[in-house]
TrEMBL record:
Keyword Signal found: yes
Keywords in alphabetical order: Signal
Statement: the UniProt record of this protein carries the keyword Signal: yes
InterPro entries: DUF4397 (IPR025510)
Organism, scientific name: Paraburkholderia kururiensis
Highest taxon, organism lineage: Bacteria
Chain ranges of the DUF4397 domain: 37-152
Protein name: DUF4397 domain-containing protein
Highest classification ranks of the organism: Bacteria, Pseudomonadati, Pseudomonadota, Betaproteobacteria, Burkholderiales
Signal sequence, start to end: 1-18
Length: 261
C-alpha cells in the first residue's frame, strides 16, 4: 500500500522530480493520486478483431492481433472486463478486478486457448521510486504448450548456467511478478530474452539482442507460434513485447533465433 503523504510533501516531491526531469504523470501514480488506468493487449494470433469492454460497455474498439491500446482512465472499485467481436457486446472471454485502486495500472490480455478464447488479468501497483530511471518489466505466460517457464532478460553472451532466472516459474495464465505485485526493475541497456522450461537451463527460446530504454514499461508475453499445429507442439513459442500501451507501436514479436522461426 502506498504511504500517505501530506499536500505539502506532495508538492515538494513533485517540484523535485520536475527539476530532475521526472514525469508528473508517474508522480501521481507513485503517490496513489492518479486515476486507475487500464489497457488491452491482443495476443491471439489469427484471432478476430475485438472490442474491449469495461462493465459491459466498449472502452476501446477495433483491436487486432499484437495491438496494445493506450492506457485509459477507469473508476475505482469492482470492475468487470471482457472482450467481444467488434460491434458486439457478447463476451468471448471475461473476468473482473475486485477492487480497482488509484495509482495502479491494469492490463487485460486476449489469450489463445485450446478450446475457446481466454483472458489474462494483471493488477500492477506501480511502486516505482520517484527518482528512478529504471525500466519496469513483467512477464505473462499465454502458452498452453509451454505451461511453466523461466525467463532470463540478460546482457548478450551471458551464460545462463551462471545466473538465476530474471522471472522464474512463470506459469500458464499467470504473470511474474504475480498480479498485485510491482514489476521488476532493470537498468536500460542491451539485452537478450531467453526462455527455458522451469528449472532447466536448456533454452527453448532465445531472441536477438534488443535495446531496453530507461523508463520503459514492458510486458513480455509468451505466445504460441502462429498456426493450430504449432499451438499444440510443445515449447513452440514466441515472445510479444507490449511497450507502455502505445498504439503507434504494436507489440513487438520476437522470433526464436534457435529455430529461425
Amino acid at each position: 500500500m502506498k504511504a500517505f503523504r501530506t499536500l505539502g510533501s506532495i508538492a515538494a516531491v513533485a517540484a523535485l522530480v520536475a527539476a530532475c526531469g521526472g514525469s508528473g504523470h508517474d508522480v501521481g501514480k507513485e503517490l496513489g493520486l492518479q486515476n486507475p488506468e487500464v489497457h488491452f493487449v491482443h495476443a491471439i494470433a489469427g484471432g478476430p478483431t475485438v472490442d474491449f469492454l469495461v462493465n459491459g460497455s466498449p472502452l476501446q474498439t477495433g483491436i487486432s492481433y499484437k495491438q496494445v491500446t493506450n492506457f485509459a482512465n477507469i473508476n475505482t472499485g469492482a470492475t468487470a472486463v471482457a472482450y467481444a467481436n467488434t460491434g458486439s457486446t457478447t463476451a468471448l472471454a471475461s473476468g473482473n478486478f475486485p477492487d480497482v485502486a488509484k495509482g495502479h495500472e491494469y492490463t487485460v490480455l486476449a489469450l489463445p486457448g485450446l478450446a475457446a478464447p481466454d483472458i489474462g488479468l494483471i493488477d500492477d501497483p506501480f511502486d516505482k521510486g520517484l527518482l528512478s530511471n529504471d525500466a519496469r518489466v513483467r512477464a505473462f505466460n499465454a502458452t498452453a504448450n509451454a505451461q511453466n517457464v523461466d525467463l532470463y532478460i540478460v546482457p548478450p553472451n551471458t551464460d545462463i548456467n551462471t545466473v538465476s532466472p530474471t522471472m522464474a516459474g512463470v506459469s500458464f495464465k499467470n504473470a511474474a511478478p504475480a498480479s498485485g505485485q510491482d514489476s521488476i526493475y532493470l537498468s536500460g541497456g542491451n539485452y537478450v530474452a531467453i526462455a527455458t522450461t522451469a528449472g532447466s537451463k536448456t533454452p527453448i527460446f532465445q531472441s536477438s539482442t534488443f535495446s531496453l530504454a530507461n523508463n520503459a514499461d514492458w510486458l513480455i508475453t509468451t505466445v504460441p507460434v502462429a498456426g493450430v499445429l504449432s499451438q499444440l507442439a510443445p515449447n513452440q513459442i514466441h515472445l510479444l513485447v507490449a511497450q507502455g500501451g502505445n498504439t503507434t507501436t504494436p507489440a513487438l514479436e520476437l522470433t526464436n533465433t534457435l529455430t529461425g522461426s
